[in-house]
Amino acid sequence: MAVPYGRKSRSKSRMRRAANMRYIPKDSSLCSNCGEPKAAHHICGACGQYAGRQVIKVVEAE
Ligand SMILES: [Zn+2]
After folding, report:
1. Residue 38 φ/ψ, nearest 5 degrees
2. What is the per-residue pLDDT across 32-45, written as a single tens digit (0 to 9) for each?
3. What are the beta bridge partners of residue 1?
4. 18-51 burial: b if 16+ Cβ within 10 Å, else e
5. What is the 1 CA–ligand 1 centroid distance (Å)?
6. What pLDDT does 7 receive?
7. How many angstroms is it from 38 CA to the middle of ligand 1?
8. How many angstroms separate the alpha carbon of residue 7 from the centre of ligand 1?
9. d(CA 6, ligand 1 centre) in Å
10. Tens digit of pLDDT for each residue in 9-21?
11. Which segments of 1-62 does DSSP mark as H helices, in order?
12. Helix (H) and strand (E) counts for the chain?
C-alpha cells in the first residue's frame, strides 16, 4: 500500500482546503430579459427579473 512520503505543511493543507471552498460559477446562464450572464435559478443582478417577472427593484448608479 502506498504511504505518504512526508507530512504536508500547514500551508499546503490549507491551500488544498481553500481550493474546495473557492466559488466557481459553472452553471451560469444568460438572462432572458437583458442577456446579462447570471447564475442559474437565481435572480438576474442586472435587471432584477426571475422567470419573466420583476422580483426586485434595481437602483441604477449615477
Ligand atoms: Zn436581466
Report:
1. -140, 160
2. 888 888 888 888 88
3. none
4. eeeeeeeeeeeeebebeeeebeeeebbeebbbbe
5. 54
6. 92
7. 8
8. 49
9. 51
10. 999 999 999 988 8
11. 10-21
12. 1, 4
Residue type, position 19, single letter:
A
Amino acid residing at 8: K
Which three three-digit cell numbers place residue 4? 505518504
Phi, psi of 39 (to 5 degrees): -75, 140
Q: How far apart are CA 47 and CA 37, in angstroms?
A: 11
| Residue pointed to by grid coordinates 437602483 | 59
Q: Could you tell me the distance, in angstroms and rounded to a whole number, from the CA of residue 52 to the centre of ligand 1? A: 10
Q: How far apart are CA 26 and CA 32, in angstroms?
A: 18
Picking from 42, 5, 10, the residue whose alpha carbon sits closest to that of residue 25 is 42
Q: Which residue is it, cell 426571475?
A: 50
Distance 43 CA to ligand 1 centre (A): 8
Q: How do the domains of the chain map onto residue ranges?
A: 28-62
